[in-house]
Amino acid sequence: SLYVSEYFSQSAQKLSFYSWYGNAKLFHFRVPEDTVLLRWLLQASRGKGPECTDMEITVHFRYGAPPVINPLGTRFPANATVRPSYNISIALSSAVQNTTFVNVTTPAAGDWFIAAHLPEAAGRIEVKGFSTPCPYMFQADMFVLRLAEMPILEPGVLTPQTIISPAKPLHVKLFVPKHAAGMRLELRNCLMGQQKVCTVRVALGSITLPQSFQRIITCVGSTNCSLALDSPPWEKWLQVMVESLGTANASMSVEMLASFTACRPRSASSFLNFSSLNQSQTGARPGSAGALGSSALSGGEAWRNTSSPRSSCLQSQPVVREDLDVVSVRYRLLNGPSVPVNSFSPTVLLLSLDTGMDSGGSLVVSLLLNKTSVNLANATVAACVSAASPVLSLNTTRNCSTAFFQGYPLSVSMASAEAMLIVLYPQTDDWFLSLQLICPGGQGECNAAEAKVTVFAYLTPCFNDCGPYGQCSLLRRHGYLYAGCSCKAGWGGWSCTDDTKAQSIGVQNLATLLLTLSNLMFLPAIAVAVYRYYLVEASVYTYTMFFSTFYHACDQPGIAVMCIMDYDTLQYCDFLGSVVSIWVTILCMSRVKKVLKYVLFILGTLLIAMSLQLDRRGVWNMMGPCLFALVVMMAAWVYHGVKRKRCYPSSWKRWVFYLLPGITLAFIAISVYAFMETNENYYYTHSIWHVLVASSVAFLLPPRDKHKKPWAWSQKLTCRYQICQNDREELYAVT
């Protein structure tokens, strides 16, 4: 056999501490057909700075869809199916780089996903630029070894094969046709030299993660060996690997035979509707040619024109897939939302999720039993959702499993008429919904009974749109799109349904009131500025107070939210007002000439607006104007001091009662803002920041100019008669 090796690589990604699914870095690979060995090369590294500490990276693997992970141990929504992901840990301790290999033999062909992340986030809010986080990088590369020409095992044909040595196992493949209810693989006439002893290990199927349903049997001391499977995956290639367990360098010959048990649908045209839905909707003319030589009938005709229910293994219902948006699909039944279900054979619906872009959402299946349609009060409608092939034996096994997939069970009855199933990140494949009526007394009790079940099935990016305390975000890795929920107000979980740490309504209202009403502390600063004739500064403080109040009213994570305009606009105006307030306050303290002061006001405001547009959260957007304004202020104070030949400001009372308290409040505010804020205490630490900054402004504003008189409201606004003096001088008079 000729082996071909291929290598696939993707660029490294910077890892993040985990707080929601968007923090996990996703890698998407596609394993080619006939692959016999898959090797992952995982490379993790960290920076060399003192801020870098020992770290443990968690890596998750899954076939067919992104892995469903739960590092925080939160609850999933009710009725959601959760199966633990396969994961490994990579430690970065003394070594700066760690290289790990993961091998998978006979992997399934198709999409494979890797997700990597750091431990749980600490929750501290870091100001960009104050500290340098340690970079942790992760890169995943894929190496595959595949057969260039894998032998094909034809059904019903006895094929001789040879196993050269135990070190070189035999690889063959066979194609499973549609409507295959079962398959059987036989090994006959095993010969090792002159001995008729079959000592082999047979592996049927491919390995998938996190769960693998590969079937393995070991045949020792027998000339014939067989393996039977129920509900094999339809229209798929199955790999068969045969390993010799004999002595080294001893060849073995064996004959292989594969056979299938056909499933006869209740009506050929009913399954034809799956591929000819347009004919089913418009109603093709009787006698028009269809696939397999059958007549293409409408959905209603196909249901009525059937053979005996006892002679078929399933009853099919035509389903239309309607694409609504990205990762958003609705399934519509052509014969109406209600489907008939009996006890003779399961009713099967096809839910197609094979486009490669459907695995990033949630598949929701909802059943509603029509209680008036069931003749038996103790009857139950058993349902099963499975991938690759339907479950055809609900009335006997009831374990909802196929040959290579463990399905998800559902049931409705007179006592519980509704049932719902949520499949998180369904793997790329054809999914099937099987329904069958089951009676406690056996099938004979249900002979005359028929149930009507209303089926609703759809694919949505986020179940229930993440609820009132979450935001559904569409994530992207190269060309692949998937969705995740970002929770707020203390809520957690996959769909933001875990209220273990949720904030109560009272706490949410308190947070909103603190963050908004704390901005009223700007009122004393505005009053001081107006009293001292600093009208431009007072206008800036009023602008800041207004937009900060309504920005925080709109920024709340809970239900106490009020947005008077677009959120991004409010945020930009809040940030702009905050930085400009600091800018004009320091320039006002410098006591430069009015013309120069107002020129600096306008020029600085324009530059600040530009820098905030480039990087809204950068620390230098605030520190840059502050430092420049401080340089201007210190230069002006030195100039005034040299000119007057004494310290400026010269009054000790000015220093003790105004400047030192204002500077102290400003430094405390900066410390709280930069080093103390976390996600849990944000609503009161940031409120303290509002109070301290506004109070410091009231202390730091300089006194008014000496030549300006205080506001004399009795003179400015007159409400009495006055004797006006006529100052005109008559230059001449004409008589």
TrEMBL record:
<keyword id="KW-1015">Disulfide bond</keyword>
<feature type="disulfide bond">
    <location>
        <begin position="487"/>
        <end position="496"/>
    </location>
</feature>
<feature type="transmembrane region" description="Helical">
    <location>
        <begin position="595"/>
        <end position="614"/>
    </location>
</feature>
<dbReference type="InterPro" id="IPR000742">
    <property type="entry name" value="EGF"/>
</dbReference>
<comment type="similarity">
    <text>Belongs to the TMEM8 family.</text>
</comment>
<dbReference type="GO" id="GO:0005886">
    <property type="term" value="C:plasma membrane"/>
</dbReference>
<protein>
    <submittedName>
        <fullName>TMM8A factor</fullName>
    </submittedName>
</protein>
<feature type="transmembrane region" description="Helical">
    <location>
        <begin position="682"/>
        <end position="701"/>
    </location>
</feature>
<keyword id="KW-0472">Membrane</keyword>
<keyword id="KW-1133">Transmembrane helix</keyword>
<feature type="transmembrane region" description="Helical">
    <location>
        <begin position="620"/>
        <end position="639"/>
    </location>
</feature>
<dbReference type="InterPro" id="IPR021910">
    <property type="entry name" value="NGX6/PGAP6/MYMK"/>
</dbReference>
<feature type="transmembrane region" description="Helical">
    <location>
        <begin position="510"/>
        <end position="534"/>
    </location>
</feature>
<feature type="disulfide bond">
    <location>
        <begin position="462"/>
        <end position="472"/>
    </location>
</feature>
<feature type="transmembrane region" description="Helical">
    <location>
        <begin position="655"/>
        <end position="676"/>
    </location>
</feature>
<keyword id="KW-0245">EGF-like domain</keyword>
<keyword id="KW-0812">Transmembrane</keyword>
<dbReference type="Pfam" id="PF12036">
    <property type="entry name" value="DUF3522"/>
</dbReference>
<keyword id="KW-1003">Cell membrane</keyword>
<feature type="domain" description="EGF-like">
    <location>
        <begin position="458"/>
        <end position="497"/>
    </location>
</feature>
